[in-house]
Amino acid sequence: MSQPIRESADNHAMGAYDDIALYDGVRTKRVLAFFVDYALVLALCVPVAILVFFIGVFTLGLGFLLYPILFLLVAIPYIGLTMGGPKQATPGMRLMGIRLARLDGRPVDFMLAVVHGVLFWALNAVLTPFILLATLVLDRKQTVHDWMLGTVVVRS
Fold it and tell me: Does 74 map to a domain?
């Protein structure tokens, strides 16, 4: 699929993600995958909201305090288990034929996937237009949070 990885002096994996063909159409596919994943997370919020209702009843109202963080209760495990799983992609990303990869060649784990998602939302709240504009100037069509974490999104 790709070139063999060769180690450089600073001990980073080089070569595996240098092929420009890995990034064809990635920008558009990422945006479309985001909408698919956002819809899936919102759909998963419905059964979790029902569960939170019953928790609220059983805890005499205390469980209702989970409603403000309902989206996070669903999105964080969704991102961590899918992007941090063996396929390294959310269902939306798989549908679009892309996956997350680390530049050092190691697999993406649960924690890195969660940090990747949290950084996306945090940076999006502050730097909205720059998230996608960064893909025009950074190597490998990386977004700001990809660049910060040493990850890329490639065609699978």
Answer: yes
